[in-house]
Specification:
Strand order of the largest sheet: 1-2-3-4-5-6-7-8-9-10-11-12
Number of helices: 1
Order of helices and strands: HEEEEEEEEEEEE
Distance between the termini: 44 Å
CATH architecture: Beta Barrel
Number of strands: 12
CATH class: Mainly Beta
Largest sheet: 12 strands, antiparallel, barrel
Strand content: over 45%
Shape: flat
Helix content: under 10%
Radius of gyration: 20 Å
CATH topology: Porin
Number of domains: 1
Length: 240
């Protein structure tokens, strides 16, 4: 009987978690670094800052991230990856706070891609479909405009439709699964981005995160891949 009660207690606690405290401002810093010497010499760095602001009428998100990698190629140290990305989204809450109007802006610079830079401005509808003790899910969709310059120096600007999904599942009190997906459909190029991650708390301030990031462009230069992937294990520090 005692064993049965113990099993039922474990099942009842799985997949639920205490409600997170709603903070007016929260910020996480993510850091990963690898350096090897000897027969193989490489240096790679991944960093990210993510901030969330929750106000009475606004809910805002800000992201800045970068990736840098240097390898020893034929006895010479060469930069083999250099990416920067930043974005900001403001969500204005309507009478039903789960229904919102959003404004979004982003800028991406990838030295080794088909584009010198890619930037986006978009507005539209954002809605939180649910937010319960175990998971939350929201989406946004709306028109926008993209600005891009190819590695050949050509401008590719035009109207787009941007859609995004944000799903979070609290696996336990200390582990969280996240899936973020966005796509920007335009006449010149369709740009899509996916981030899948699982993070586990070490203590109140530190977490360990495993993530898979995928960037896809339909229009790329000859000899370039449409899909870039990035797998990382990083340490996340919660500032507040």
């Amino acid at each position: 009987m005692q064993k049965t009660l113990l099993v039922l207690s474990l099942l009842a606690s799985y997949g639920t978690f205490a409600a997170d405290e709603v903070k007016p401002l929260s910020m996480d810093g993510e850091f990963g670094f690898i350096s090897t010497t000897g027969n193989t010499e490489t240096t790679s760095f991944k960093g990210k800052l993510a901030a969330h602001q929750e106000l009475e009428m606004w809910s805002n998100d800000f992201v800045v991230e970068g990736l840098y990698k240097k390898d020893d190629v034929a006895g010479e140290s060469q930069t083999t990856a250099q990416k920067y990305f930043m974005s900001a989204q403001g969500n204005y809450k309507l009478e039903n706070p789960d229904h919102r109007l959003f404004g979004f802006a982003s800028y991406a610079d990838d030295k080794f891609s088909s584009y010198d830079y890619q930037a986006t401005l978009a507005v539209g509808w954002q809605q939180k479909l649910w937010d319960d003790p175990s998971s939350r899910f929201s989406y946004s969709i709306g028109p926008g405009y993209s600005f891009a310059k190819t590695s050949e120096g050509e401008s590719e600007n035009g109207l787009i439709v941007r859609g995004a999904l944000d799903y979070q599942w609290k696996v336990s009190d200390n582990a969280t699964f996240k899936q973020i997906l966005s796509t920007e459909v335009g006449s010149n190029n369709t740009k899509s981005k996916s981030e899948t991650s699982l993070s586990a708390k070490i203590n109140d301030s530190l977490s360990l995160k495993v993530s898979l990031l995928m960037d896809h462009n339909t229009d790329v230069a000859e000899g370039k891949e449409n899909l870039d992937t990035q797998t990382a294990v990083t340490v996340v520090y919660t500032f507040f």
